[in-house]
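Morning - fe (iii) ion inputs below, output right after.
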Amino acid sequence: MLKPYFKSMLYIILSLALTAPAGAQDELNVYSARKEALIKPLLDQFAEQQNVTVNLVTSKADALIQRLVSEGENTPADVLITVDAGRLHRAKVADLLQPVTDAAILESVPQQYRDPQGYWLGLSVRARAFVFHNEKVKAEQLSSYEDLTDANWRERICIRSSNNIYNQSLVASLIAHHGVETTQQWADAFVKNFARKPQGGDRDQIKAVAAGQCDLAVVNTYYLGKMLTGSEEEQSAASMVSVFWPNQGDRGVHVNISGIGITAHAKHVELATKLIEFLLTEQAQQWYGNVNMEYPLHDNIDTNDILKQWGPFKADALNLDTLGELNAQAVQLMDRAHWR
Ligand code: FE
């Protein structure tokens, strides 16, 4: 029989244990390859809504993946956010992620924008399309990625280097659709049409088109969106070019995602799952797409005027996991084509 004193102590201890879950689900640690300004406001909103602390670490995706490897089981990270499926695939094959099992969450993401086993999910869609000079090119002259190998485009195209994951994923998508041999021929001919040695990022390619150094660039469209809302100089360059959606007559434009995965050693799986749920709500999708000039996962969600102006497009339905699987082959192929 317990003495009353011990009884009340036990009661206090028990009730403390119930009301304060010893820091179990009251914080969430996010490793993100997304620029802070493009994700933090949403994380803050989630933190407030859930009354939890969200700690954000921002770095390059490869550095974060390396960090997850070296931290192993001791990692504080609960989720990994990247701006392409290729890096999430890398994290998955390195056993750094665990699958999301919630059926409702999985079903709310279109199939091509998530890992087949649920190891990662898309949060927004980014399209790699053509940007052409308004005076030097007519939209009627454009059709597909395949057509950019035509001799008619000799020394007229700007694109960044082959070490960029966006180009690696684009080439991986061509391998998926045409096989290695045909894609090799494509790359060999495509490189001949470069106006200059690949240099700079996607914005630099758009600026080069505006400056007359090339007539067409292959870029992620959100960069043009950012320029249209950027400095006066960027706005004036952006006003000289237009967007063209390639391959609308067949498989659709090559797309990628920004996405998220729960780390293999996450300590706050429940909260991580809630964050994913939150990022997939219509309101978060709209904000996230708009501020980044990307597209929400579903067409029925309203976007901003710039995206509306570019019109709707058909996206390649290839499962983005394939891009990760074919990444090494794509890199080798671009190398053989001397795509610098
Ligand atoms: Fe980017």
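Note: The chain has two domains: 25-125+255-304, 128-254+314-336.

O.
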